[in-house]
Amino acid sequence: MDSLTLIREFLDSRLGVAPDKVVPDATLAALGVDSLMMLELVFEFEDRFGITLTKDLKSPKTVGDMVALMERLHSEKS
Amino acid sequence: MTGRRVAITGLGLVSPYGGNLADFHARLLAGESAIRLLRTDDLPRPLNMPFAACPGFDAEASLGRPLAGVLDRFAQLGLAAAFAAWDDAGLPRTPQANERERWGVAWGTALGGTMAYEKGYRDLWQNGRERLSPLSVVLGMNNAANAQISIQLRLGGVSMSHTVACASSSIAIGEAFRRVRSGEAPIMLAGGSDTPQAYAVARAWEALRVLASADEASAPASCRPFALDRGGLVLGEGGAALVLEDWEHAVARGAFIHGELVGYGTTCDHSHLVRPAVAGQVRALNATLADAGLTPADIDYVNAHGTATPEGDPVEIDALRTVFGDHAKRLAVSATKSLHGHLLGAAGALEAIVTVLALRDGAIAPTAHLKELDPACAGVDHVTEARRNQSLRAALTSSFAFGGSNAVLAFRTVADQP
User: How many CB pairs under 8 A join A and B?
Assistant: First the structure.
């Protein structure tokens, strides 16, 4: 599964956000992702891709930032 | 005790029957039991016990997906009940101005987010997971319900939970009552919620040998307080909430007043963890009457703790006989747990609602399934069929908890809306 699909599925199942609203320019806060939900999203990502993020990771602001972060970490791993 | 008068302007619950408050009361009056056989697929041995569940409760439909997803079931039930009470009080979910800085929440729960932690144990020990979702902490914390109620309704005053076993929400209501009466808070939302079907909790109660057993057919009539053939208590899940409001505040905004909360007394038996004592209950009953400025002769109904255990029932009636003396024979008493089960930390709030509805509607819900009275429970006027068109002036509801904590609340009828 690609990163954007993972984020869309997560936001749909947890927050009821329609997938077509989850576009790269959208800010995560506007979609209802607060700091707690960000932790959950990171947790889900770690789980799916079998990696552990460092604790001092800077929080992404937009869906695009999040996708870029996920892809980078994913490629570093493989 | 003098102070400000305390109006009850909102009543809300998650009904085990699935309907609204009026439906809940109508079914109690009809003697319709909400208790069914609960069967689960738990390992190593499924639960198989009579239980009062809320099968019609859909947390997502009731609270919305984002909110439901960050709450354990006890907090979902609590928040839904709180919203229902708030709506019933005619208060908007979102405040107009900054008026709610002193408004607060007092909640009762015996178990809190036990189910969330239980899920964690299952994931780690049964499902081979090696880590837990970061939300587990906020799902499991015991103050999750009151915290989320304060957040959702923007209440800036005290936000607290009371864990006092089966007296949790009676004590929450009582402590909230004192804050409104003293003028500290113009409005307090008080209530409780619990989910005793948490696997290890239900199995622990089973091990204590105080639960009724039943099959599918006998489950609805398995909780028989004060009856010679009683078989033990029946657990239930749920949430119940009341809006307590400064009388003048309620009148000024033209709120409907369901009843008046006039007294609260709480004591501890200070003798035994699970064996109740007459003396401690008598002190709680007398303290409540004194607090309310009422005499035994003023009380027309008692919603009893009545759990249907041989240890509890006779002691409770003994305490009522002691306090009410000559009036006891004419004192209408019913234990509605026979219909809605024992909601542990939510029991006091649910039964407070039943008591307020009895006064407001002049209709007493019965102790169901009471055919032959245990002679040790004689001496009061046991209500075994609904009584309607009653003229009731004041009523008590009692909660007597493991640990020996006792809490009694006194309510008065509002004859004419001010």
Answer: 22
Summarize pLDDT for B36-65 with one digit per residue, the tens.
999 999 989 999 999 999 999 999 999 999
Provide the mean pLDDT of chain B: 97
Judge: B65–A14 Cβ closer than 8 Å, yes or no.
yes
The residues near B64 (Cβ < 8 Å, ≥ 6 apart) are: A16
Is residue B223 part of the annotated active site? The answer reads: no
For the question of an ipTM over 0.90, the answer is no
Q: Tell me if chain A has a CB within 8 Å of the CB of B55.
A: no
> Taking residues A45-73, what's their average pLDDT?
86
Active site residue B305: yes
pTM for this prediction: 0.96
The total number of residues written for chain A in this structure = 78
Banded pLDDT at B1 (limits 50, 70, 90):
low
Pairing relationship of beta strands B332-334 and B238-246 according to DSSP bridges: unpaired
Query: Which of B60, B135, B136, B137 is most worth mutating to test chain A (most A CB atoms within 10 A of its CB)?
Result: B135
Contact A40 B64 (CB under 8 A): no
All structural domains of chain B, each given as residue ranges with its CATH number in brackets, are: 6-252 (3.40.47.10), 264-412 (3.40.47.10)
Please say whether the beta carbons of B285 and B396 come within 8 A. Answer: yes
Largest CA distance in chain A: 32
Pairing relationship of beta strands B394-400 and B36-39 according to DSSP bridges:
unpaired
Quick check: helix, strand or coil at residue B289? helix
